[in-house]
Design brief:
637 residues, Glutamine Phosphoribosylpyrophosphate, subunit 1, domain 1, six-stranded antiparallel sheet, five-stranded parallel sheet, 29 helices
Length: 637
C-alpha cells in the first residue's frame, strides 16, 4: 500500500471517532507499511507540544495514546535527573522518554493511569499495543493475513482497509447472559480486545497475532495480597486507605481545562467528591441525575451531600421521554452490544457535565474493589446455606417462589418493610426472590454464582448455533478456586464485569460527549491494597464497603449517607410498558428476531408478554435483546 493510500486509510478510520478528540488530529506513516491516526481531546498541555502522533527525541519511537498518565510529573523529574529534556509539559512526551530509557514493559509498570497505546519502534520495525491495568481505555484489534488494524472503537475498524463482519454466536450468547461480552472475545469473530494489563508486539502482519504479554495481572495482585496481608488494626487501615485515596484523587485533579465530578449521593461518589473538596481551594463542580420515578431517584441524596461538602452542584431530572430520545442513540455510541440500562443516565449526566467541564472524576469501582454488592453479602450467605438444603427441598422452594409474580412479592414486602431494620432493606425484592428461586435449581457454587449474575440463565435457548458452555467469567471463578466464595465473586467481577460493563459504559458515554472521566478508586495502588485486606474490613455486620465507609464518615456524617443501596438504575419496566413500547415491539417481530437465523423468536416474545403483564422479572434480559436488535440494524444492515 502506498504512503498516500495509508494516509487516506488512517484518516478515514479516525473520522468516525472524532467525538473522542475534537480538538486536534494527526496522522503518521512509515515506509514499512505502518500508519497511525489520532484524534485529540486536549487536557494537559493544550499547545502544539501535546500534538499526536508524537515522536521521541531520538526519532526512534512514535506514539499515539488515549488516556492520561497521572504520575507523569514524578517520572519527568526522574528522567530530568538522567539527562532528558522536554519541550512541553504533556504526559505523552514523558512516556516516550520512559520507553527510551527503560524499555516498554518496565515503562508500563511505572505508569499510574488509564491508557490505550500504539507505539511504533522504527529501529526494530515493531508495533506495540498496550492497555491499562483495569481496561479503562478500550483497544480493539482486527487481524487477517497481511493486515492488522486497531482502534479505540469498533466503528473505526468498520471503515478500515478490510473488515470481516462475521458474528461470533457464542459471544452473542455470553452477551445475553451477562449484558456484555467478556473479553478478549468481541461480537465479531476476527476482532479481539487487548486484555487489560497487557501489551502486544507485532513484527509480521502476515503471521498469526502473537500472544500478548502481561505487565500487571489481577491474578498476581490476588496472590500477593494473600502472601502479604494487611496486619494493622481498624484505625490503621482507615488511615492507610484515606491516604491512598487522597493521593489517587489528587493526581486526577490535574488538568489545563475545567474539571468536576459525578455525585450520586452514594458511598463511592461521595467519598471521591469529599476528597476532592478537601484538597481544593474552590467549590468543586458536581453533577447528578434524578428520575421522575421515586424508586430510582437519588437526586435529593446527592443534593444533601453536595450541600454538606459545599460543592457547586447541578442536577437534572430525567423522564421516560428523555429515555426514548437517548435509546435510539445507543447503537452509535455502543458499537458492540452492551445492555446495562444505567448507560442511559450515564450518557445524560455526561452530556450535562460537558456543558460545564472537560474532565469529570467518578466514583466507579467501589463496589467491586471493596465488596459493596448485595450479591457478595446476601449472595455468599445464601449460597453457603443452599449447600445444606437437600435437592428435593430446594426444588420445592424454587417452585413456591416462582408461583408468585415479582409484583406480588413486592407488595408483600412493602407491607412488611416498616418493621425491617434499615440496613437490611432491599430494593426490588420480588426480582431478587425470583433470582433466589433460580439459584435453588443449580447444583454447584460455580453454577449458582453464574446464575446469580445471569439475566438469561440459558441463552443458548435463544441464540441459534451457540455452543460454548464456558467463558472468561467461569474461568476467573476457577482460577480463584482456593479463595473464599466472597473473594472469588469479587475476583470474577473485577476480571470481567468491571472491565466489560462498568468501564465500557463510562468510556463510551463520556467520550461520545468529548468528556474525559477519571476513576481514582481504580488506581492500581488502591486495588492492590484492597486485596491485602481481610474480608471483615470489607463486610461487617452485614454491610459492604465497611472500610470505604469509615473513610467517608471522616468527611460526611453517617446520617446523610446511611440508607438502602440504590445504584445508578432506571425504571426500565415502566418505560418499556409506556414510552418505549412501540419502539420495542418493532424490534421484537418474528422477522426481526430471526433474521440471519440468529435468535429464537418465541422464547423472547413470551418473555415480552410476561413483562407487559406487569412483571419485571426478566426486564434486563429483554433490554439486552432490544439493544442487540438495535445494534444489528445499525451495524449489519
Amino acid at each position: 500500500m502506498t504512503a498516500d493510500a495509508l494516509h487516506a486509510g488512517v484518516l478515514a478510520m479516525i473520522e468516525p471517532i472524532a467525538h473522542r478528540g475534537p480538538d486536534d488530529h494527526g496522522c503518521f506513516t512509515d515506509p514499512a507499511g505502518v500508519a497511525l491516526g489520532f484524534r485529540r481531546l486536549a487536557i494537559v498541555d493544550l499547545s502544539a507540544n501535546g500534538h499526536q502522533p508524537m515522536a521521541s527525541a531520538s526519532g526512534r519511537f512514535t506514539i499515539i495514546f488515549n488516556g492520561e498518565v497521572y504520575n507523569h510529573a514524578d517520572i519527568r523529574r526522574e528522567l530530568l535527573a538522567l539527562g532528558y529534556s522536554f519541550r512541553g509539559h504533556s504526559d505523552t512526551e514523558v512516556m516516550l522518554a520512559a520507553f527510551e530509557e527503560w524499555g516498554i514493559k518496565a515503562a508500563l509498570e511505572r505508569f499510574v493511569g488509564m491508557f490505550a497505546i500504539a507505539l511504533w519502534d522504527r529501529a526494530r520495525r515493531e508495533l506495540t499495543l498496550a492497555r491499562d491495568r483495569v481496561g479503562k481505555k478500550p483497544l480493539f484489534v482486527y487481524a487477517e493475513p497481511g493486515l492488522v488494524s486497531f482502534a479505540s472503537e469498533l466503528k473505526s475498524l468498520h471503515v478500515g482497509p478490510s473488515f470481516e463482519r462475521s458474528i461470533d454466536r457464542d459471544a452473542v450468547a455470553d452477551y445475553l447472559r451477562y449484558l456484555y461480552i467478556p473479553g478478549p472475545q468481541t461480537i465479531f469473530r476476527q476482532v479481539r480486545k487487548l486484555e487489560p494489563g497487557h501489551f502486544l508486539t507485532i513484527v509480521d502482519p502476515s503471521a498469526s497475532i502473537p500472544p500478548a504479554q502481561a505487565f500487571w495481572t489481577l491474578d498476581d495482585v490476588r496472590r500477593n495480597g494473600v502472601e502479604d496481608p494487611f496486619i494493622g488494626g481498624d484505625e490503621e487501615a482507615v488511615d492507610a486507605l484515606d491516604a491512598l485515596l487522597r493521593d489517587a484523587v489528587r493526581i486526577r485533579m490535574e488538568a489545563d481545562v475545567p474539571l468536576g465530578a459525578f455525585l450520586s449521593g452514594g458511598i463511592d461518589s461521595s467519598t471521591v467528591v469529599a476528597l476532592m473538596q478537601a484538597q481544593s481551594t474552590q467549590s468543586v463542580r458536581t453533577f447528578s441525575i434524578g428520575f421522575d420515578d421515586a424508586r430510582h431517584d437519588e437526586s435529593q441524596h446527592a443534593a444533601n451531600v453536595a450541600a454538606h461538602l459545599g460543592t457547586s452542584h447541578t442536577g437534572l431530572l430525567v423522564t421516560g421521554r428523555d429515555a426514548l430520545e437517548t435509546v435510539t442513540r445507543l447503537p452509535d455510541i455502543y458499537d458492540e452490544p452492551m445492555a446495562d440500562a444505567s448507560q442511559i443516565p450515564t450518557l445524560l449526566v455526561c452530556t450535562m457535565a460537558r456543558k460545564h467541564v472537560t474532565v469529570a472524576v467518578s466514583g466507579d469501582g467501589g463496589d467491586e474493589v471493596f465488596g459493596g454488592y448485595n450479591r457478595y453479602i446476601l449472595g455468599t450467605r445464601t449460597l453457603e446455606r443452599l449447600r445444606k438444603v437437600p435437592r428435593s427441598a430446594r426444588r420445592l422452594l424454587a417452585a413456591g417462589i416462582g408461583s408468585v409474580g415479582t409484583d406480588g412479592w413486592d407488595r408483600a414486602y412493602a407491607a412488611l418493610s416498616p418493621v425491617v431494620p434499615a440496613k437490611y432493606r432491599q430494593r426490588l425484592p420480588g426480582e431478587k426472590l425470583h433470582k433466589l428461586g433460580r439459584l435453588m435449581r443449580e447444583e454447584s457454587d460455580l453454577a449458582r454464582y453464574r446464575s446469580l449474575v445471569s439475566v438469561w440463565s440459558h441463552p443458548e435457548a435463544i441464540v441459534r448455533g451457540a455452543t460454548r458452555s464456558d467463558d472468561a467469567f467461569v474461568d476467573a471463578l476457577r482460577r480463584s478456586s482456593g479463595d473464599t466464595l466472597f473473594h472469588r465473586m469479587m475476583f470474577a467481577d473485577q476480571s470481567t464485569y468491571l472491565v466489560e460493563n462498568q468501564m465500557t459504559k463510562v468510556d463510551r458515554a463520556s467520550m461520545a460527549t468529548s468528556l474525559e472521566v477519571r476513576v481514582p478508586i481504580l488506581d492500581q495502588r488502591v486495588i492492590e491494597f484492597s486485596w491485602r485486606l481481610p474480608q471483615a474490613m470489607k463486610v461487617r455486620d452485614g454491610v459492604g464497603k465497611w472500610l470505604l465507609r469509615q473513610v467517608l464518615y471522616r468527611y460526611v456524617p453517617r446520617a446523610i449517607l446511611d440508607r438502602p443501596k440504590m445504584g445508578f438504575s432506571v425504571p426500565l419496566g415502566a418505560w418499556l410498558r409506556s414510552d418505549l413500547r412501540s419502539w420495542a415491539e418493532a424490534l421484537l417481530t418474528t422477522d426481526a428476531l430471526e433474521r440471519d437465523a440468529l435468535l429464537n423468536a418465541p422464547v423472547v416474545q413470551r418473555a415480552w408478554q410476561t413483562m407487559l403483564s406487569g412483571s419485571d422479572e426478566n426486564v434486563l434480559g429483554l433490554w439486552a435483546v432490544l439493544q442487540l436488535q438495535q445494534w444489528r440494524q445499525r451495524w449489519l444492515a
